[in-house]
């Protein structure tokens, strides 16, 4: 039987995953310190809504000229010390529940980061484990949890 002191990793990791999905994370390392989840990693460089609108207004000729110019590679955005507190996790859980009701019967994407982390959390919950850290890289498609078995 699961002790009351053990967190519900299934819900916690799903909420953290939802937060990381909004950043379009490529890779991350999540550290668990007490009941705080601290993340560092790298996310895709995103265009702002204003940049997208300005691209739509450009003429066909300007798009052709732009294609002939050498493009500089996009640099990812690195972040460190992103902290998910219990209050943040609770807020993300409520937002996730609101999104589930808006989905109109469509099941969640099983390959989404939030669902993969939820599955890892469910495994930890069933086996009564304590999570220490998780690392993940998008290109590898693998999670590497560090856990303590009780």
- H/E element string? HEEHHEHHEE
How helix-rich are the residues, as a percent range? 40-55%
How big is the Rg?
Answer: 19 Å
Number of helices: 5
Widest sheet, order of strands? 3-2-1-4-5
Q: Biggest sheet, open or closed, and with what strands and sense?
A: 5 strands, antiparallel
Question: What fraction strand?
Answer: 25-35%
Shape: globular
Distance between the termini: 12 Å
Return residue spans where pLDDT drops below 50 for at least 5 consecutive residues. Answer: none
Mean pLDDT: 77
Helix- and strand-based class? alpha+beta
Q: Give the strand tally.
A: 5
Number of domains: 1
Characterization of the model:
The chain has 150 residues and is an alpha+beta fold. It has one domain (9-46, 53-149). It is 42% helix and 28% strand. It has five helices and five strands, in the order αββααβααββ. A five-stranded antiparallel sheet has the order 3-2-1-4-5. A hairpin with a 2-residue loop joins strand 1 and strand 2 (36-43). Helix 1 packs across helix 4 and helix 1 packs antiparallel against helix 5. The N and C termini lie close together (12 Å). 19% of the residues are buried.
SSE topology:
Elements: H1 9-22, E1 25-33, E2 36-43, H2 49-57, H3 60-68, E3 77-84, H4 86-102, H5 113-126, E4 129-137, E5 142-149
Antiparallel strand pairs: 1-2, 1-4, 2-3, 4-5
Short description:
By secondary structure, this protein is an alpha+beta fold. It is built from five helices and five strands. The longest helix is centred in the middle third of the chain and has 17 residues, at about 85-100.
């Amino acid at each position: 039987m699961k002790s009351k002191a053990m967190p519900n990793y299934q819900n916690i990791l799903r909420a953290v995953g939802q937060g990381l999905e909004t950043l379009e994370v490529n890779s991350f390392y999540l550290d668990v310190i007490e009941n705080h989840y601290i993340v560092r990693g790298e996310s895709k460089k995103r265009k702002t809504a204003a940049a997208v609108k300005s691209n739509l207004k450009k003429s066909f000729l300007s798009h052709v000229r732009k294609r002939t110019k050498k493009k500089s590679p996009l640099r990812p955005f690195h972040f460190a010390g992103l902290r998910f507190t219990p209050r943040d996790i609770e807020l993300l859980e409520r937002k996730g529940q609101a999104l589930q009701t808006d989905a109109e019967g469509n099941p969640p994407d099983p390959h989404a980061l939030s669902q993969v982390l939820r599955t890892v959390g469910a495994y930890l919950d069933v086996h009564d484990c304590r999570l220490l850290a998780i690392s993940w890289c998008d290109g590898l498609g693998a999670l590497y949890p560090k856990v303590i078995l009780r």
